[in-house]
Amino acid sequence: QVQLVESGGGLVQAGDSLRLSCAASGRTFSSYAMAMGWFRQAPGKEREFVAAISWGGANTNYADSVKGRFTISRENAKNTVYLQMNSLKPEDTAVYYCAATRTGWPPYEYDYWGQGTQVTVSS
To answer: Which pLDDT tens digit goes with each residue over 26-47?
Structure first.
């Protein structure tokens, strides 16, 4: 099993920055070269993809809505994935979820999910 715990959410103003972290644990995580992703779900909307990163960090994908503003990165020595969010907009308000996949790159499904962290951007 893999446990994922997100942190770093909060209330900010438009134009501000936040960095989300996702700490992974569990023997399965260290046994597989897991790609990681960030997703978000706004009130009344479906969950949507935000960004993903391969195990070694050489490959990344971003949703068009966050390209140029968000950066995904990881530190495998710390079993941690980050999402640096700059130039935040009110429409970025959502619960942000971290996810892990054993399906390789590019990932097509995710096996493990965190509980989420709230990000609220005021105008």
So the answer is: 877 667 789 999 999 999 999 9
